[in-house]
């Protein structure tokens, strides 16, 4: 599939993919930090995988409430995991950290007219902290992620891989793969810390490969294999399958 691309649109998509592949490791959570969270006991004093996952589910609810893009949610999760993998966060502060990451993502991705006031965001989230607390936490998060809010996310890879597959299908077969289903699966993956240890490209391609298997879209298998080879991804279904075994 990759070798025979000649259309201008496909070439542009491949150029974008190569840029993402080059950048993806620069703003990702520290795997060793995520493993510490996974190994922590739930004693009410330490951050645990369960608490992290609950917080991300709350951020997903906020994303859906405001009608924000999946890219916003994906970036918010990236910021949260980058922060948690570097810092020892007490459970009582997690809500403020999570909402700060979410607000940074919203201001980075959404149109300015759609960005809610901090007071409204706190009220709808039903938290007890103040706007000053949120702004102070935002600054701390920014410092710990080295002011690099923008990041290469699994959602960006999901969009590109999907577009490349669609671009090389006959028009009448372009409904074989449903992007909304892929989005829903990515959101579910973001709600489990285990998937934050995978590279964004691996997670995105794994979701697509698994959906192709589930839908028995045999005609798409070769295309995914080419994308896997191009992205230098090995065993692209493994992250999702490892979760299913657990």
From TrEMBL:
Keywords: Cyclin. InterPro entries: Cyclin (IPR039361), Cyclin-like_dom (IPR013763), Cyclin-like_sf (IPR036915), Cyclin_N (IPR006671). It holds the Pfam family Cyclin_N. Gene3D superfamilies: Cyclin-like (1.10.472.10). It comes from the Eukaryota. CDD domains: CYCLIN_CCNG1. SMART domains: CYCLIN. Residues 57-143 form the Cyclin-like domain. May play a role in growth regulation. Is associated with G2/M phase arrest in response to DNA damage. May be an intermediate by which p53 mediates its role as an inhibitor of cellular proliferation. Belongs to the cyclin family. This is Cyclin-G1. It comes from Rousettus aegyptiacus.
């Amino acid at each position: 599939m990759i070798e025979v691309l000649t259309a201008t649109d496909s070439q542009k998509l491949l150029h974008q993919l190569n840029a993402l592949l080059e950048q993806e490791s620069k703003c990702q959570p520290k795997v060793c930090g995520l493993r510490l969270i996974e190994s922590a006991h739930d004693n009410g004093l330490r951050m645990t995988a369960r608490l992290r996952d609950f917080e991300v589910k709350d951020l997903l609810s906020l994303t859906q409430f405001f009608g924000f893009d999946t890219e916003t949610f994906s970036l918010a999760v990236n910021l949260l995991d980058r922060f948690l993998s570097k810092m020892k966060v007490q459970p009582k502060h997690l809500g403020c950290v999570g909402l700060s990451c979410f607000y940074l993502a919203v201001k980075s991705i959404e149109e300015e007219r759609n960005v809610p006031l901090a007071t409204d965001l706190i009220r709808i989230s039903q938290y007890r902290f103040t706007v000053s607390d949120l702004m102070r936490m935002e600054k701390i998060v920014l410092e710990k992620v080295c002011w690099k809010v923008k990041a290469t996310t699994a959602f960006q890879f999901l969009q590109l891989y999907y577009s490349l597959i669609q671009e090389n299908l006959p028009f009448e077969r372009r409904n074989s793969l449903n992007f909304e289903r892929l989005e829903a699966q990515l959101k579910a993956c973001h709600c489990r810390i285990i998937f934050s240890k995978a590279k964004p490209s691996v997670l995105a391609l794994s979701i697509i490969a698994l959906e192709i298997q589930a839908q028995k879209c045999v005609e798409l298998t070769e295309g995914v294999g080419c994308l896997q080879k191009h992205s230098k991804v090995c065993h692209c279904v493994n992250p999702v399958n490892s979760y299913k075994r657990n």
